Amino acid sequence: MPDVMSSSRLIGVGVGPGDPELVTVKGVNALRAAEVVVVPVMDTGERGRAEATVLHYVPQEKVVRVVFALNERSDHGRREAAWDAAGDRVAELLRAHGSVAFATIGDPNVYSTFTYLAHTVGELVPGVVVETVPGITAMQDLAARSGAVLTEGTEPLTLVPVTAGAAVLKDALNGPGTVVAYKFGRQAAEVAEALRETGRIEDAVWGSALGLDGESIRSAAELDGAPLPYLSTLIAPARRDGTRGGKL
Prior knowledge:
Blueprint: H1 4-7, E1 9-14, H2 25-33, E2 36-41, H3 49-54, E3 63-67, H4 76-96, E4 99-104, H5 113-124, E5 129-133, H6 138-146, E6 157-161, H7 166-173, E7 178-182, H8 188-197, E8 205-208, E9 216-219, E10 233-236
Parallel strand pairs: 1-4, 1-5, 2-3, 2-4, 6-7
Antiparallel strand pairs: 7-10, 8-9, 8-10
Helix pairs in contact: 4-5, 7-8
């Protein structure tokens, strides 16, 4: 058994938005070097994007599935209990293994479950070293697949999780620069309304299941208010005059 105080490492590895080809070489190396790779699953048990991606690079027997209340927002107690249970399980793994990788879709430092896990494990396993390996984000993938330019010159970029409310998104759309919205599928109608009210809908694009079977990339002008997949991404590019280097 390793000396937990000096040698345990918890590595959050960003595995991208779903397309296994978008895992970085460093990410693949980190997954393969870790003794155990933890993947988050919902309590319903179905295979998530992180697990499906990881299995392209490491054998099933190395993967440990840990339940998280990934989409729980209304029941604070249930969510906290799930985080505590997940932290206990990962702490147990760290006591038995020198290094544990946690695979998260996107990037481990951008709206990731890894943040909460690392905080919990840090309290349970004194001296654990926490590291992260960056991953490709959904907004980068959508920009590449749709041709939307995220930023030019001095334009700001605002990232909004619509779980914070459509009003937050509307405030961002009224400001300068490009606005990216995450997790807006359940509030697609409110998002479409905000885009129309701010005059940003014609240039905006949304996508879901990027790089996977069932991928959908469409103009936001086609949003009809029907719910979309939870992990949908929207890009509303900055208002531009079409001149080269106009924002420099």
